[in-house]
Amino acid sequence: MNNESLYRTLKSVAMSVLEDAAFVFSDELPGTARPSIDDWNPAGVSLSFTGETSGVFRLWADEALLPVLAANMLGLEPGSADARDKGADALREMVNIILGNFLTDHFGSEAVFDLGLPSPADPARAMADCSGDSGVWLQVEGSAVLAILDVNHPRAPDPSGKAA
Amino acid sequence: MAYTVMVIDDSETIRSILVRSLAMTKLPIDAVVQAANGREALIKLREQWVDIVFSDIHMPEMNGIMLVNAMQEDPELRDVPIIIVSTEGSTTRIEELKKMGIRGYLRKPFTPEAIRDVIVSTLGAWDEQ
């Protein structure tokens, strides 16, 4: 499988969903600006999928970003207790929307997938994900975000799809 | 005439977004009933009249597909229009759901305009029956 194509689509979809659903703009985070796991304590959400292919999607984000997502998605006062309380759910829903849109964009509109339920990512995975070579690093509102996709049996993307 | 809308999603965030978006449609919506999964939705649907249902697919306890089946099998509920709200864009899945009886499909992220359009097209046709 062409991982470069996969991550190109994932980056495009993640940035688009963050903008459309959470009204935040993002840029690719250069390697020199990426945090090391030693001084990064991100919140992580994991979501599995099965169907034409199967795998797991993980999204790691600065804790500080979660209330921003919640505030923007729900029209709450930034910095409010309500926004802080709903931050984790907002991140779970972002994972859901990003993965769902990615699977269609990358594998085509006829492919059928079943998504699991978003759950907290195993903190033990954070180190491996952060130090690995794959994944999409984004800078969102000054916070680092890392999107990782582990595909079990990858197949080529739909050539007529919307892959970036 | 004001409508009663039901929104079903295990994510409180999405339910809140749907409620806000429904308010932004400026449609005559009298009440919004919320449920976190299909099982809870069925209980509430049997307790009160609902004009239209917006439901996610992937939920714990009873998912959206199971809910559609359950509503189709219940004479009291089979004519209540269901709109699926999901992240998936599979045309195969959408066609399967339409054959099962859903009246529309909204892909996340959605806009208030898209919600308004689906309510008008669905309940407008509903009113003509």
Briefly characterize the structure.
The complex is a heterodimer of chains A (164) and B (129). Chain A is built from four helices and seven strands.
User: Distance between termini of chain A?
Assistant: 16 Å
User: What is the molecular shape of chain A?
Assistant: globular
Rg value of chain A = 15 Å
What summary fits the major beta sheet of chain A? Answer: 7 strands, antiparallel
Q: Look at the helices and sheets of chain B and give the structural class.
A: alpha/beta
Helical residue percent band of chain A: 40-55%
Poorly predicted runs of 5 or more residues of chain A: none
Largest sheet of chain B: 5 strands, parallel
Beta strand % of chain A: 15-25%
Poorly predicted runs of 5 or more residues of chain B: 125-129
**SSE order of chain A, one letter for each helix or strand:** HEEEHHEEHEE
Form type of chain B: globular
Count the strands of chain B? 5
| Count of DSSP H/I helices of chain A | 4
Mean pLDDT of chain B: 92
Rg calculated over all Cα atoms of chain B: 13 Å
Question: What this model shows, in words?
Answer:
The complex is a heterodimer of chains A (164) and B (129). Chain A is an alpha+beta fold and 164 residues long. In chain A, 40% of the residues lie in helices and 23% in strands. In chain A, strands 1, 2, 3, 4, 5, 6 and 7 form a 7-stranded antiparallel β-sheet that branches. Chain A is globular. Chain B is α/β, with parallel strands linked by helices. Chain B has a 5-stranded parallel β-sheet. In chain B, helix 1 (12-24) links the parallel strand 1 and strand 2 (29-35). In chain B, helix 1 (12-24) packs across helix 5 (112-128) and helix 2 runs parallel beside helix 3. Chain A binds chain B through residues 17, 20-21, 70, 73-75, 86, 89-90, 92-93, 96-97, 99-101, 103-105, 109-117, and chain B through 10-14, 16-17, 20, 58-60, 86-93, 107-109.
